[in-house]
Amino acid sequence: MLFANKIRQLREEKQLLQRQLATVLEIDTPMFSKIERGDRRSKREQVMILAEILQVCKDELLALWLADQVMAVVADEKEIARKAWEMVNNNLNGKSNVNKNRQYR
The HTH cro/C1-type domain covers which part of the protein (predicted)? Predict the structure, then answer.
């Protein structure tokens, strides 16, 4: 709930109401409340709008949003998730992510 916590913090700092942000996002207030509690995921387009309204770096909010997306997908697969993360990290760093002698089971 990295993203949810951050948008709640930013909204409260700006003294904005949930209904105000819900209106800008063109959703109802209960839906925004669910997003802010982490019970519902927002769309990428909504993240971009929130970044603008809350005056925060779009990349920062997108990174938190994406981290939550990844955590939701791998929540029940912690050991495999670690191995997958290692592969992704190696790939992003330009290293080979495939070790032909190593088998994952």
Answer: 7-61
Give the 3-state secondary structure of residue 101.
Answer: coil
Model pLDDT for residues 19-55, shown as the tens digit of each residue: 999 999 999 999 999 999 999 999 999 999 999 999 9
CA dist 60 and 3 (Å) reads 9
Neighbours of 25 (CB within 10 A): 19
DSSP string for 27-73: S-HHHHHHHHHTSSPPPHHHHHHHHHHTT--HHHHHHHHHHHHHHHH
Q: Answer with the residue of higher pLDDT: 92 or 22.
A: 22
